[in-house]
Protein: Undecaprenyl-diphosphatase
Organism: Roseburia inulinivorans DSM 16841
Amino acid sequence: MTLLQAVLMGIIQGLTEFLPVSSSGHLALFKILFHVETDTGMLFDVLLHVGTLIAICAVYYKDIVRLFVEGICIVRDVLINFAALIKNLFLSIRDRGKDHVDYSPYRRIVNSSYRKFVVLILVSTIPTGIIGFVGKDVVEQASELLIVPGICLIATAILLFIADRCKGGDKLPKDITYTNAFVVGIAQGVATLPGLSRSGTTITACLLSGFNRKFAVKYSFIMSIPAILGAMVLELKDFADLSVSGMDITCYIVGMVIAAVIGYICIKTMLVIVRNRKFRIFAIYCLIVGLLSIGGFFYTL
């Protein structure tokens, strides 16, 4: 892989991760059409996603810090409740038969909107993680076939047409059910297929579940953080066995930084797109690129 290819792929990742046109699909098409070989499997793709993760953290840093703090508090309260449970079990055995036993009280775990937000993200991450882990090899193989991104881009176009006509709702964390979160997590897991837009798929799932439109964007982007970190761990655990040159490392870093900068701009753009319901142009674009990809596949047979 050359430095120019790394730069171009960083731009593609930054543009297409947050605009609903599928970053994985465009990266797969770019690699196929220009015969890009990274020699490190999906590592470069994961690092590009880390770049866009940095963009998410830059835009939503206040929310992410608050979610992190509340997450730690949830763990603390769970441990306190567990200690109280052990103590109460001991007291119930020791003081059996007494009229009054001084049991320790339990803390309410989900006692604010941000704590509910944390739990919703965790619930969404479960199906995403399972689908991503089980389907990792399938996704890698699908990325090498021109027809798969083509079909998935057409599916993305259909989802975007649905999102364009969907009124959405007014659900915020306190109103969102854990079933809603699980369904959105499934959508994110399926969207690992090249050509299925992660943001387009998850935002459509959120809107169909009645999420507030602005919160649907925030939820879609923030819920991607555990998924990206999980994918990075899966790839980096084999990093010691990979042969990576100094030039490769330079290309990877440059691509990641460019993806972060372009991604930051595109998140801001996406907020406007969702608010004004302007998915149609992206749906048409995905439909055209998908049909061209399928046509190209059969042309090269």
In short: The mean pLDDT is 86. The first helix runs from residue 3 to 18.
